[in-house]
Amino acid sequence: MARALAIAAGLCGWLLGAAASGAEPIAVELWHSYRGAEREALERTLQDFNTTHASLRVAATFVPSQSYADKLNMTVPRGNGPDVFIFAHDRVGAWADSGLIAPLDGRLAPGLLDRFLAKTVDPLRYRRQVWGLPVAFKSAVLYYNRALVPAPPLDTRELVALAEELRGRTAADGEPVFGLVWQASLLYMHAGFLYGFKGRLFDARQDPALDSPENAASLEFVRHLVRDLKLGPEDVDSIKVTSLFNAGRAAMVINGPWFRAEIAEGVDYGVALLPVLEPTGLRARPFVGSEAFMLSAKAKHPEAAYQVMEWLTRDEAARVRMQVGLQSVANHALYTEGHVDPVLAVFREQLEFAEPMLNTPEMGMLWGPVGNALTDVIIGRATPAQALAVAQQQVAFQIQEFRKGAALARQGGGEAAFVQAVTWGLGGALLALLAVAAVL
Amino acid sequence: MIGTAVLIFIPFAVGLGLSFFSYYQGDYYYVGFKNFVDILSSRGYGLTDTFSFYYKLFITVLWTAANVLLHLGIGLGLALLLKDPLLRLKGLYRALLIIPWAVPSYITAIVWRGMFDAESGVINHMLGLEGFNWWGSTWSAFLANLVANCWLGFPFMMVVSLGALQSIPQELYEAADVDGATRWQKFRFITLPLLKPALFPAVILGVIWTFNMFNVIYLVSRGAPNGGTDILVVEAFRWAFERGDRYGYAAAYSTLIFLILFLYTIITNRITRATEGAFD
Predict the structure, then answer these.
(1) Domain boundaries in chain A?
(2) Which residue of A262, A337, B67, B236 lies most exposed, with the fewest beta carbons within 10 A?
(3) With an 8 Å Cβ cutoff, are A408 and B225 in contact?
(4) A233 with A160: CB under 8 angstroms?
(5) Is there a contact between A268 and A144 (Cβ–Cβ < 8 Å)?
(6) What are the pLDDT digits (tens) for B189-204?
(7) Which chain B positions have a beta carbon within 8 Å of A411's beta carbon?
(8) Right CATH number for A139-286+359-392 from 3.40.190.10, 3.90.1150.10, 3.40.50.620, 3.20.20.140?
(9) How far is A374 from chain B (nearest CA, A)?
């Protein structure tokens, strides 16, 4: 079936190519921030696309993830950005509102979305439209060092008992071993606990709802793990997680799929679902992010660009990304056929216990204040209720400011006024300098 | 002249212009003095909240004063030691003491961050404080920043003092010896007054550099806990790039920093006449 499809696609490509014989192939520019195996797999599928589509030519550009979003914000509105790019879904709302990406609804063939896991498509919906085709999904899971943890804990009671057993043990370098290491002061890593305590971030009216008792209970639980039981260090960044795990000083780690590539050769590790939280009896429910192909609103040939996206998310292309790139791809068919990599099987299972990150611009304003609240609780500067009350106030204020920006945008203004003000600024600065020179 | 215009005046004017605007999803909207009013009235935050302009100003002034005093003290002390004509291996010591200055400051900052680490940092190992989280309170984080920045800052003061010390004529000390002056008297009435013309500009520069010392704060304490140790210039950066692209607000912050330093320079210039010659 797959082969037949590939041949059919090849034939279509050949026919299209014949129709446009002599004409230059249409160039489609694709941006991504994949490294290593993921990049290799993506590039292989692009090669396949180019060999089967004579009339189209996809060129991929790698953009480092730190500057990726800024580059898109800068180039796309001026028309020099990519036609298609791969990005996580959390900016869909902001980009849809600012007209950076185009909705796909008019282009989607009926039933096309059925090839994807529903949980990877839903996060791409915004204002009743679909804004991308999912590539892969990413959520946190539990990594464990088999030398220290014979079998992964099913719930937090077992996890704590395991950590207590390991207390006092030292690693090869003579330093103490920690039971569980994770970036407890990041909302992204805390989400599993928050949703496992039935907490929530926004209410039904999309206003922030941080200061709820459920949220406070989840913070209190983490505070207990870090401060009372001392399962892991207080101050943790991503580098520390990796270095402690690789040195055999972290028995268990909560981290996302990217962590797999950071584990040193020779560390025998396993991956398991996040544990059930003992106080509520519910499994920890981490955030899930959906990485997707998005169509630039300024694409030169949107038809061709969409054709590329559609082809690259077919099962055949996704299989290459899954097998070569070890990517937790969004196509559900691939998890039921043949041999599935055991780690990817765990990610697939964790997806059933995961909450999609919101894709609204308001969500972007939560990370900082909630992270601060977590820090305050973990270092013992505030109680969960106090810290969340502060975060709630800060987020509410920021969202209010943001909505004012939206109101300004409706009034108009924009670039011409900006240039005018810069000119005034220049004049004013020169005058000020002259005045200062005169005074001195 | 064109170089100055392109590199200094145009970015400066753009920054100044930007401070009257609000950025929203790819476009700028004119808001007049709103950004300045918001910052100076600390709208949305209490006056002593870590996000308030006045809290940041307090931390910045404290940071600058503590640093410059320590830089000057350590630098001058070492310069006096190195000046001793009987000291051996003087060249080696000088070279070693200038090393902190020669290493790029962000690398030094990252190394200090690692040394202050709670679990694997060498400082906790030496002090027997394993597990102590330096970033857990404002004062311990401030102290860690201060130590890192003193390491970076004293060589400059030392080099300036050393140069100035060597220009003091030896006869003055001999004359003082004849008069029976003590070491302290010689330092107080000969060395210090003659160092002044060299030290004043160095201190003014030191204050401006420390006031805007982005690298150390951003990389050593990272503002921990929750912005408690952030100084004004780091705060401006965070508003622009870490808290929802508020470029206009950040530009207004930068303009205020500029005004503060500008006033400071004018005032100190008036008082000390630092930019004038030593003997006129």
Answers:
(1) 2-131+289-352, 139-286+359-392
(2) A337
(3) no
(4) no
(5) no
(6) 998 899 988 898 899 8
(7) 29
(8) 3.40.190.10
(9) 10
